[in-house]
Amino acid sequence: MFSDIKFNKEVPVYIQIKDYIKEMILGGMLQSGEKLPSTREMSSIMKVSRNTIIYAYEFLEDEGFISIKKGKGAFVCEIHVEMQEKWNVNWNALINDYARASESLDIVKHEAKWKKGMISFKSIAPDENLFDVEEFKKAFLNRMSIEGEKILNYGYAQGYRPLINYLLKYMKNKGINIKGKDILITNGFTEGFDIILSSLTKTNDKVLCENPTHNTAIKIMKLHGLTIEGVDMDIDGISIKKLEKKLEKDKFALSYFIPSYHNPTGIVMSPEKRVKLYKLLKKYNIPIIEDGFNEELRYTGAHVAPIAALCGEGNSVIYIGSFSKVLFPGIRIGWILGDENIIGYLESVKRSRNIHTSFLDQAVFYDYLQGGNFEKYIKKARKVYREKYEFAIECAKKYISSGQVMGEGGLHIFIKVNGINSRKLLDRCCNKGVIFTPGDIFYTDNKGSDTFRLGFSRVTKEEIKIGFKIIGSEVENLMKETRGKENV
Ligand SMILES: Cc1ncc(COP(=O)(O)O)c(C=O)c1O
């Protein structure tokens, strides 16, 4: 007994000893009232210093597992763990519709998975090799020394004030009039969108969006029981004509758009189209939710102002920003900019859900941003991504030549090949070690079976070349087979 303990290098030895003895007590190997070996004996059994045993015993006493009697030794306390007859609940039967729908819409679980060695074009996450970890470490130490222990205590639901002020200025610099507006810090776009829908919609409300659109947005809208009305896109963004037709026929609670480097098509809505869209929705009084997630990843052309900039002092546009593509997705920081009255309500919804986004994360992030690191990083990232983007477009046109290639920036391109089924294509490519995202998951009307998205941010140029060649040759094979069947 006691001599079989095996130490690892990660956890302090006194904690390993404490947990080992606790486990013996809970497992009934040590009975209540039983005397533990003296600290001297135990140290020679376990081959550790006596002080380590003394420390471990002190913790065991603090946690109520042993009592140390002066001059007598350490004794196991009476611990009541009376095993009862096994009781199982049928949790499956209790799972409600919300959880069932969440599970069935969970593409991470249900879509084709990356396996070691595969070239993956699935991801549109940033390339972590570009992150300036040293600057982030400095920001962490600096902010910890400024804020001290209070940064580890509860914060405010609206967010860390210096970060809010930084973002207000940041939004002003995008041409947005921030008078009468405020910001709520969220756990990325995803939470922001969910909070907005929870606050402004009710089941069966109709929501307008581009078709295709961000799959997570579709999922959240479905989970809110909303009716999604996707409007087809032209080569320069949403079809204004089709949008107008829908507006003439129906009533809508809200609209949601991704005007820059749209996911999945990569299209940037032109400034003229943004104005037309804004005017049309103004005419029908449908508030706009603008998703500006990728805006900074512009590689050519002039800055295009967000739709939120068009309404001046007006409050009709709610802008959701996120640092998930332009910086670090793991830190889960996004924001909602909108009418201050609405932000007040959204703040309460946020508080009722998760109190606030981690204050430590917000504070460190703020320190990192305000030191000019963001500008430096984005300059570097743009250069790297632009090169990959241009190379991806070149390879797509060369190797997947039957496809219509879309994408004007950002971290992905989108391809449509008339007459092929992208899921069949995916199956074949997976067998050849290449994986991507089938386009149908982005469609609001079960269409898009002939489309797919290729993320290039986390692959090398060499992988782009090899991968696109494989996809291209499988496209050709599929097309030949289809033609063959038609000729029979
Ligand atoms: C259209 C769109 N908006 C926002 C996001 C970012 O979401 P989050 O901030 O929750 O990571 C993504 C990520 O892929 C996206 O595609």
UniProtKB/TrEMBL annotation:
InterPro entries per UniProt: Aminotransferase_I/II_large (IPR004839), HTH_trans_reg/aminotransferase (IPR051446), PyrdxlP-dep_Trfase (IPR015424), PyrdxlP-dep_Trfase_major (IPR015421), PyrdxlP-dep_Trfase_small (IPR015422), Tscrpt_reg_HTH_GntR (IPR000524), WH-like_DNA-bd_sf (IPR036388), WH_DNA-bd_sf (IPR036390)
SUPFAM superfamilies: PLP-dependent transferases, Winged helix' DNA-binding domain
Boundaries of every HTH gntR-type domain copy: 11-79
PROSITE patterns assigned to the protein according to its UniProt record, in alphabetical order: HTH_GNTR
This protein's record includes keyword DNA-binding: yes
Membrane-traversing stretches: none
Pfam families cross-referenced by the UniProt entry: Aminotran_1_2, GntR
GO molecular-function term, one example from the UniProt record: DNA binding
Keywords for the protein's UniProt record, in alphabetical order: Aminotransferase, DNA-binding, Pyridoxal phosphate, Transcription, Transcription regulation, Transferase
Similarity-based family: In the C-terminal section; belongs to the class-I pyridoxal-phosphate-dependent aminotransferase family.
Protein name: Transcriptional regulator, GntR family with aminotransferase domain
Organism, as annotated: Clostridium carboxidivorans P7
Upper taxonomic lineage: Bacteria, Bacillati, Bacillota, Clostridia, Eubacteriales
